[in-house]
């Protein structure tokens, strides 16, 4: 199962909001919704999140 709880922790540590990701990270609201529901995202979206947050994929997602 995919778990995006590391994303929310990383965002809090870096003081980055969902609004910032939408405006500056090229992430749309549907993707934010999918992340909240632990839904599927593309590798491209994962890359965009890593760039926007300056982190690695392990700081965004974990598999349980």
Automatic annotation (TrEMBL):
Fetch the Pfam families from UniProt.
Answer: HTH_26 (PF13443)
Single annotated GO MF = DNA binding
Q: Which PROSITE patterns match?
A: HTH_CROC1
Q: Which InterPro entries match?
A: Cro/C1-type_HTH, Lambda_DNA-bd_dom_sf
Matching Gene3D superfamilies, A to Z? lambda repressor-like DNA-binding domains
Query: HTH cro/C1-type domain location, by residue?
Result: 39-60
Task: List the protein's name.
Answer: HTH cro/C1-type domain-containing protein
């Amino acid at each position: 199962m995919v778990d995006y709880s590391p994303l929310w922790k990383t965002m809090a540590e870096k003081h980055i909001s969902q609004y910032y990701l939408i405006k500056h990270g090229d992430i749309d609201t549907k993707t934010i919704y999918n992340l909240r529901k632990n839904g599927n995202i593309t590798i491209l979206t994962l890359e965009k999140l890593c760039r926007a947050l300056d982190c690695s994929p392990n700081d965004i997602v974990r598999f349980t």
